[in-house]
Structure prediction request, 115 residues.
Amino acid sequence: QVQLVESGGGLVQAGGSLRLSCAASRNIFSFNTMAWYRQAPGKQRDLVAIVTSGGNSNYADSAKGRFTISRDSAKNTGYRHMNSLKPQDTAVYYCTALYFGVANWGQGTQVTVSS
Prediction:
């Protein structure tokens, strides 16, 4: 079992930046993948970004050029850096880690972007 604790959400103005953290109870490089999803009110949960244990990353079209992923093995923490935020980025953001075929989820963190 993997526990994921998220932090870093909040209220930011359009054009601003945030860094979301996802602290894991295990070595993050032991995960097959680590990913971030978001869910806006009344909408489905969508994949935003994903990184493999080998470091290959992919981003949703809405995130390309604005969001990046980094990982700190010493802290067992993954980060998602979000720049040039837009009101449509407002959502609850979740991190997830795939470990031995099981998807483990964080509790989610709210990001609100004001216009």
